[in-house]
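Summary for the steering committee. The consortium agreed at its last meeting that each partner would contribute one worked example illustrating the joint modelling workflow. Our contribution is presented below. We chose a case with several input lines so that the handling of multiple components could be demonstrated. No manual editing was applied between input and output; the record is shown as generated.
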Amino acid sequence: MTTTPAPPAISVTGLRKSFGEHVVLAGLDLTVPTGTVYSLLGANGAGKSTTVRILSTLAAPDGGSARVRGHDLRTEPDAVRATIGVTGQFSAVDSLLTGEENLLLMADLHHLPRRDGRRRVAELLRRFDLVDAAQRPASTYSGGMRRRLDLAMTLVGDPQVIFLDEPTTGLDPRSRRAMWRIVRELVSTGVTVFLTTQYLEEADELADRIGVLHHGRLVAEGTAEELKRLVPGGHVLLRFADPTSLEDAERALGTSSRENGTLALRVPSDGGLRSLREVLGRLDDRSIEVEGLSVRTPDLDDVFLALTGQPGTEKVST
Amino acid sequence: MVTAPSLPGPAPAALRFHPLRDSATMSRRNLRHMLRYPSTTLLLVGMPIVFLLLFVYVFGGTLGAGISEGPGGRSEYLTYVVPAILLMTITSTVQGTAISIAMDLTEGIIARFRTMHIARVSVLTGHVVGSLVQAFLSLAIVMGVALLIGFRPEAGLGGWLATTGFLAVVTFALVWLSVALGQVSRSVETASNLPMPLILLPFLSSGFVPTDSMPTGLRWFAEYQPFTPIIETLRGLLMDQPVGHHGWVALGWCALITLGGYLWSRKLYGREHPS
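What follows is the complete predicted structure of the assembly.
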């Protein structure tokens, strides 16, 4: 056993991959500390799945290097496979077997002793709400159930780094929330989660750090808050009871704009406490009554739009 | 289980491969598919049985008269055609192998297996073992039907053992070939069509009529294609007659097909799957 400090769960340097003429990854760098959730955010065709395929040993990069828990992908793929779990975008369950048989298959492939395997399977069926469906063939499962079974199968081997490629794409809102809860529980047990998504809300909900992938390159990286701060568009919305107060406030604050047809004023702000206090202080000095106030910080949609010039939900064809 | 999440990387012992154990697990998976969906096996075994009945009862009277020097007939033709039908049973089974491999690939389960620390070849050997069992089950059924309608082999115990062993060698070869064919197919439909030549080749051999009766070009092909020595060997073993050089030629072909199929399969399994 080594006594050096644990390496980051994932470290990627200059990763490149092309399919023929088409460049999918154009030099990707990222680091994911152990025990955190990293979300790769991007539209379809941005290179998210390719990144997961490379990091999970399914595809070889054309250039650059990557390590998972200190193991080099190129020279120690076996060691990488022994430590990861992957739930791909497309269901990887055996439709002809029942849910329980699928999980037992995984237990056998991880060489768990029979009794431990059965216990682990029973526990996962409970945790993923699949007890009632355990004896039914997976072909009869709904999309959400298949996805849960898929993830449960990934967890049989106690992976330390889990790759989730668009785990909630195509799921209904309820199943999506269930999946989020499961991911949060996973992280609380200390595993590292690398997740791709095209939903900004999902990255915002789950990730410690977010990387925005666009045309095979990271165009921004940081916490959801840091990313939001990158874009202008944050403001304070002040509402007034009468036109007089509105006009007074407009004069007092200077840089502001009226909301059309309402008695509201939009004041640019980073949403921080200091700037808010300043705005309120100026109004207070002139005894202007404010009826209501709301702070609007940009959401990740704004971030995405600002960084890539495209709305996050737009599909980019490849 | 003792796991320490904080340790950087698994202990070296965890990196050992268990090809036999993994292959056994994968074989169980394939056998379970077979037991769970017996209709697949029945469908695959149905074709050779239909051909057996068709060739014996519809064409058998006339064909029987043509194949034998003496007063040929239906029962002579039954004796003549059984080896070809047995071979057809095997080719029908391996068509199923190709289909189930292609299904695995479209389901994404093989992608999961590829990301797991398991002996890689076990995914393929699982299909091979499953298909071997399925083929022998089918062969037993087809042989049962043949015996029922009057097939009377002359082989003693030794002959039967040799027949069984030889059938295993032939099945093994064709299964490996179709494991490759299943992988090379991009869809389940292609996988069910690609092994078609294997289904047709017995007709262009000494299986249904003696090669002497064919026109020169076809005859030349029929005599040199692998299924003719295989059928002649089976015929010899079942009827307790000297196999002659056919036995060695057949085994040579099987070794070649096995090796080719295995290497091709391994290459295909190792390749990168874009998507």
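Residues 233-291 of chain A form a domain with the Alpha-Beta Plaits fold (CATH 3.30.70). The two ends of chain A are 46 Å apart (CA to CA).
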